[in-house]
Amino acid sequence: MLTTTRTENAYELALQNFDAAADVLGLDNDTREMIKFPERVLTVSVPVRMDDGRIRRFEAYRVQHSSARGPGKGGIRYHPQVTLDEVKALATWMTWKCAVVNIPFGGAKGGVTCDPKHMSAHELERLTRRYTSAILPLIGPEKDIPAPDVYTNSQTMAWIMDTFSMMKGYAVPGVVTGKPLNLGGSLGRNEATGRGVFYTIECACQHLGLPLKGASVVVQGFGNAGSIAAQLLHAAGAKVIAVNDSSSGVYNRNGLNIPELMHLKSLTGKVEGFPEAEPITPEDLLALECDILVPAALENAVHVDNAAKVKAKVVAEAANGPLTPAADRVLEDKGVFIIPDILCNAGGVTVSYFEWVQDEQHLFWQEQDIYDRLEKVMKIAFNDVLKIRLDHKVDMRIAANMLGIGRVADAVRVRGIYP
Ligand SMILES: NC(=O)C1=CN([C@@H]2O[C@H](COP(=O)(O)OP(=O)(O)OC[C@H]3O[C@@H](n4cnc5c(N)ncnc54)[C@H](O)[C@@H]3O)[C@@H](O)[C@H]2O)C=CC1
Ligand SMILES: O=C(O)CCC(=O)C(=O)O
User: Fold this and answer.
1) Range of the structural domain that residue 162 is part of
2) What are the residue boundaries of the Glutamate/phenylalanine/leucine/valine/L-tryptophan dehydrogenase C-terminal domain, all occurrences included (predicted)?
3) What is the ipTM, given to two decimal places?
């Protein structure tokens, strides 16, 4: 089992990022008080009957960070290292992310501290249904709309939708996004995060004068976000030279055949054993000579101790929070162009927004329509962030946070405070 350095508290890092952007924006203290912290935090105990007949209790969370611009929106993570502070950080980032791509949602996130790799499908279903019942008062199409995140998927969303609908007495597809297509899911949602990552990399390459065709790429984390980004980069003529997952990594300096690697991963759940590739450790993978590094796993992958070893020209944050602020500074000093998470991986929530709109209208769109709309949203957001970077001479992360935080601040100012 590979390990990541997850010792830094993600929520403290999220607050540091907020302050850095709020300072440049010159945000007054009253507005900071109103928008910085989560609006609602729920911790629940989820008892589950395991297959051996025993009851096990899981700790789980749903955090609503902001409803200033619309209902809460954000995924649900199943992972052994989920903590309340991690979920608070992820919910905070969702608020700024939705504002960066200018969709009418606030930010929320959920998590269950569990090890889904060591649970059966029946145990996962019982866990999901009981967790849904526990957070039921908080969620709904007008209130807070969950979606998949690490180690959850369209099946998890189907169970949530079914449990919520059973309680209401009628089908409520708009309570979650990332659903199976036959339950009101959207074409393109499964690919949306990786596709959004790809569009922002295209924009960055154009800005930097770096040809994407022939560019060398390294991807850390070969799940939903990482594998689709790798697939699109490969199809665009980039050379994906290394990828890894939680158990192993593979490297070929002439480029990996990504469609075949995806096939292997779908069959075995691993990238290990891919022919015509050599194994690579997580540390060596991050330190590879390459043009573009895509961290697509978990928080704090690049930190103060390994940042200096990164040799990429562009870092595209498909994951949430993969770089600590200390790593940011090291990479900025080296002249690395960073596409920050709240911009880079916003394609997922953007197509979730399209899914929610389609569910609410009961009218479904063509795949190409979704891709065209997504491309437009991502490219406008990239250019908005780049303009702030150039106008204010700040790095891309501060610029993205300024855009997101500024829009949320405007919303609360206009809404006012009562009483
Ligand atoms: N799925 C989505 O729509 C979105 C996901 N994200 C973020 O993208 C990141 C990945 O999420 P998904 O792809 O959805 O999850 P996933 O569950 O589909 O895949 C996660 C992948 O990361 C790998 N992994 C886990 N720990 C690792 C480690 N220490 N080193 C290397 N690989 C490791 C796993 O083996 C798996 O292949 C997360 O940070 C998530 O919050 C962000 C926006 C939307
Ligand atoms: O699709 C969504 O609603 C949220 C995706 C998500 O959790 C994220 O962007 O981190």
Assistant:
1) 36-183
2) 186-416
3) 0.99
